[in-house]
Amino acid sequence: MALKSVPDQNVADRVTVELREAIFNGDLAPGERLVERKLAERLGTSHIPVREALTRLTQEGLVERLPHRGARVAALTRRDLEEISSLRTLLEQFAVVRVQDAWDAAKETRLRKTVQQMVQAAEKGSNARVFELDRRFHEQLWEMADHDMLMTLNAQLRSRITGFLRAANAALEPDARVEHARTHDLIVDAIAGGDPERARAVMAAHIGEAAARLESQTQDAEASAAGA
Predict the structure, then answer these.
(1) Burial of residue 1 (number of CB atoms within 10 Å: 0-12, 13-18, 19+)
(2) What is the pLDDT of residues 137-187, one digit of tens each?
(3) What's the pLDDT score for residue 216?
(4) Is residue 3 part of a domain?
(5) Contact, 165 vs 138, CB < 8 A?
(6) Within a domain: residue 191?
């Protein structure tokens, strides 16, 4: 893909978006080396905006720089997994209770529609679409919570949480992906039921199951990195 001729800062913004999406959709795999010259050729730009983009993605935790070895796509470590999943659990438990307090038919219809689309995408084997809708469902919950500071935190954590969601979805077999999509209805059921403890418990279980799927992968990735 080539980027249109635009000012350098805009090019850096566009390159950042392109590389972030390539990481999220798996085109750039965890542990893959990121060579500025090759990326610049692929994107049809100079190495300067690529370097700026890699710096931004390093700050987001999606890229890591190694002394004398350049940059590579960050792999999810066990510590990353524990920190992201535990923090996400706290924040999304807070969000579902906030949504529950202001629950109405419009919110339920919106969330149910997203879940229905997710299930349909999973049944068709459209992994990228499932991931997109999974991300949308959780973003909708954060928006419905109507809490400015929560949205600020979400913006700061979005790349790490999105990376977690992508990895969790990629770890699913086709049948399990359909079942995973349907579990989002359980979250909606719990919110609609009006019991905050039930809503918190269902959300914690939902995130915990995703983390459990990834645990063996993080161990494998760390073992591979140690042997590199």
Answers:
(1) exposed
(2) 999 999 999 999 999 988 878 777 777 777 777 778 888 899 999 999 999
(3) 65
(4) no
(5) yes
(6) yes
* CB crowding 53-68: b at 16 or more within 10 Å, else e: bbebbeebebbeeeee
Residue 200 has pLDDT above 90, yes or no: yes
23 and 56 inside one domain: yes
pLDDT of residue 218: 63
Q: Do 54 and 112 share a domain, yes or no?
A: no
pLDDT value of position 164: 75
Query: Of 151, 128, 127, 126, whose CA–CA distance to 138 is shortest?
Result: 151
CA 153: distance to chain centroid?
14
Average pLDDT of the chain, as a whole number: 86
What CATH code is carried by the domain that includes residue 135?
Answer: 1.20.120.530
Cα-based distances in Å from 101 to 23, 110, 204, 212: 36, 17, 18, 30
Q: Residues 47, 37: contact at Cβ < 8 Å?
A: yes
Print the domain residue range for 174. 78-227
168 close to 210: Cβ distance less than 8 angstroms:
yes
Structural domain count of the chain: 2
Structure tokens at 198: 């039930």
| Composition of the chain by helix, strand, coil, percent to 5 | 75, 5, 20
Domain boundary among 73, 91, 118: 73
